[in-house]
Amino acid sequence: MNTIDIVTTPLQPSSAVSPRLGVYLREIRAEILRSLRTPAFLVPTLAMPLGFYTLFALVLAPPGSDTGVYVLATYGVLAALGPSLFGFGAGIASDRDSGILALKRISPLPPGAFLAARLASAALFTLVVLIGLDALAAFGAGVRLPAHAWLTLLAVHLLSVLPFCLLGLCIGLRTGASAAMALTNLSFIGLAVLGGLWMPLSMFPPALQHFALTLPTYHLSALALQTVGLGNGGDARIHGLCVVGFIGLFGGLAWRAWSARTL
Amino acid sequence: MNKLNLPAIEARGVSHRYGKVASLGGIDLRIERGAITALLGPNGAGKTTFVNLVLGRTRPDAGSITTLGAVPGSAVARLGSGVMLQSAALAAQLTVREHVGLFAGYYPAALPVAAVIARVGLEQQADRRYGSLSGGQQRRVQFALALCGQPDLLVLDEPTVALDADSRRLTWAAIRARADAGAAVLLTTHLLEEAEALADRVVLLAGGRIVADATPRTIKARIAEQRISCRSDLALDQVAQLPAVIAATSSEGRCIVRTAHAERTLAAWLARDPNLEDLEIARASLEEALAQLLQKEAA
Known about the structure:
The complex is a heterodimer of chains A (about 260) and B (about 300). Chain A contains twelve helices and no strands. By secondary structure, chain A is mainly α.
């Protein structure tokens, strides 16, 4: 399948040029519709990063400081964390409880399509928030970056969706819906605060600063901060390697849970 | 194609256990195409376990099973099967039309979406969201998803639970039409009436074993025991001699009789005791009838 198909394949069951691709696209569309029609998911996950950015970068930031750039880098990671953990993790737990997942898995739907649809949905909502954040930063907070820095930053932020979705999948596949919701909330706040997304890690005691090294949010925000020239002096390759490690770890755990036969 | 001659499901010596509890103990079963087979049995008989094995949701601990000639749960088996699970809510935010369209897209030879919706009688609700439908309507959407791909194998786990009488008739007709088109239909039910009205063949399961495998008429004759309760002047040993009586007991001044044929028993009874009063007739529950059947076989 190539990218041309994506543009030309209509969202109709009967006329798909590549039936398999059509199945993926319709599944993605259905997943996005579900999220769009769920205000309880939509409003907090989309509004929170934008609201925080407005508060800290536009309202509270001292004039002439680099707060606008700093929180852009870290809140972009936060923007990926919400849809990934809540839409993907808690969403899959609730699909598992309701039996939707069981029905999908015994249907002819390719096994990957269900996950791909949820991943694409999380990525899309993240992208919407990121565009909003970047616009607020550029036009509201007066953030000026070279074009390649904007693009790299966007790429790092979007990449964050992958490890967070896989983490969400681990939670969603291993716990029931209500436990998953609690665990997801806990993970969200823990990863955001302790990874330094809400306030700079330098405000934390040394023990917590060391603990942050074990969190994917820390390494992703470190990569984002380096992109905008506010790095902590660490090696970007190490942070990148850590992120890859988290993707491998969460992916492996999720794969084991997914392969368990009765779901 | 010669695959049409193969049974839709073939289970050989299939056993399954949950932990230490055996849920199926050595089942041999072939499910043929073009017919409706009902798995009948009380709760815990192993019906849903068998369905899960057919769908590849769980694997047998011993024996082998194929679905449409393939490994259960494989792409081939899934492409040829339409399934309605006993408890599977769908996404509340999507409409009936969206749900059916999505599932129809999974199958190579799906029916047009509008035709499927008409077949389950939800034309009026087609653009309503699943979450706003009544329980019976939601069940019909789930049935539509099983039906939409024109599957060679239709697997329905308790399909008419929560349906009103009209929906039930509609569902029965659609199931029958699918079998007449050559598909194999496997459904589970704990209602003798449903098996009787719908199935060509009834496989009676109890305690993880096949107790009987016959036409609904034969099964019914074997388990459709009735219970007559009344006040009568006739002595208990005389009642026990009446036609078709299986057993007679008395309790609190009432005479309680188990019979294989209530009409014959009563005709003779009324002829001998015109004062018979306070009459009640009830069909024994499937559980009671099964217990009776198992006892009879053990004897």
